[in-house]
Structure prediction request, 601 residues.
Amino acid sequence: MQGMIRQKLTKENLQMLHTKAEILINKEIAPAHFKMALRLEGLTEKIKPGQFLHIRAGSGYDPLLRRPISVHRVSSRENIIELLYKIIGKGTQLMSRRSKGTYLDILGPLGSGFRVPKEQTNFILIAGGMGVAPLAGLADQLATYRKKTITVILGARNSDSIVCAKEFQEIGARVIIVTEDGSKGHRGLATTVLSDMIEQFDIRKTPPVIKKKGIGTITIGEYAPEVGLYACGPLGMLGSVAKIARQYKIQAQGSFEERMGCGVGACLGCAIKTRRGYERVCKEGPVFDLSDIVWD
Amino acid sequence: MGKELEVNIGRLKLKNPVIAASGTFGYEQGYQDLIDARELGAVVSKSITLKPYEGNPPPRICETTAGMLNSIGLQNEGVEDFIADKLPALKANSLKVIVSIAGKRQQDYRELAKILDKTSADAIEVNISCPNVEHKSSARLFSQDPADTASIIRSVKRQTNKPVIAKLSPNITDITLIARAAERAGADALSMINTLIGMDVDIISKKPRLGNITGGLSGPAIKPVALRMVWDVYHCVKIPIIGIGGIMDTEDAIAFFLCGATAVQVGTANFVNPHAASDIIKGLNMYLQKQNLKNITGLVGSLKV
Prediction:
């Protein structure tokens, strides 16, 4: 028994670090949106898309707690981790003021990450606002698959918050932009576009949407194991995606956000209600099968 | 390192006086993945109850100025699962394991103590002060009433020979009354303080920031309250005190020893700096050397007033 546990611990030890990572880049790429690049030796190849870093933004006690920030993209060759974040409070405000060449106190990588089943080849990624951050890393992984179609629906409030369209296009994904105010791409909600695409694939006239292959091949009510839906964004959006996934019998995973204490599964602060009871966003999550979540 | 940091909490002998507080360290896949828990004097388990507790609705955590509120609500899988699964894991990677017990009824504590007496637990911390669950007594918390405190501690002591530590609530007019009641009932030591009941509000949504409305405040914000209570209690009990409350670094820990604590627990600080407890152990060693002290016990209660 004891031997077993030690072995497990040793293995886990290699996968989590509490360290200082050098900030290589920290720049504003759109109003209030920042991209930060960190150098992190010996860890990058172990990071799975969907995992996060628990970051101490400053050094004082206000804010006190770390901030969970998802890993955006990783370059193992250069030992670089990219983060994409938006200023929403004290923690991210402090992060945005950190200058290049200084060191950031990080804990990670943490959490479960996306799990891509082998039978999937038709990938639909749907992002709401900053939810785009972990999906970019996922798209990088999917791009390495031999057989795949990647569709990315980027939803945001306005054109200022559409931040990574180019990155997705570069890896060969078709990108559909949706803004609530219509200032870029389609007007409306990303989830509306998603259900339109599934249900009425020949109705929309914009070229990227009308494709005979890929998403258009799904017929209502038929189980489509080759289709994988991956979502990240506000809770309301994830709820809508879960509903659509259930309706069309599509496997869907979502990355969730919750206030966190420890980030490592100890404090049970970041609870989310699942069919199995409360689970931890930091440990069992942040990526969950959307069909497992209990929506109130 | 020699024996400079060794302390005794009643019959519980600790290699050093720095303990991971209940619910802040994890069982086997928490900070154990990062830190060798054998460096710590002891680890206190998350409070366990007789039957599984689902816990409170989210959000369960909310950050406040230099502190945090939590309303976890004692989520745990129950004592049976704890003994079969969590305790062996904790024992395998810690020097000493103090098992925290909680319940809604007085007899829950008695039954838990009886069950735990036959296990490898090194001591029992009786959590009569969790602010996140209701019980049926007139007082909201058992540790708000000297009679409840005494009867729970007495019944736990009857069931076990393991050292029994009473964890006290600061949410009370005069904590020394409760401390003395626990001591008279046979407690081997006191852990103090548990969190302060508080709440916070989101003025945009006009909703409370915790799902359970109120929660327990911890972190550096509560240190002065904790220090005062340790200092007061130190003068009216003979049993050792384990100081808890906003200990973030070595300086904080030393303040608690000076005010009368024999050991300290580090809780919220783990979330901020996972190496907080091990940093404090190193810091205490350096402090003793600088002060030319042979043992940490020489510091206990030595505040100059």
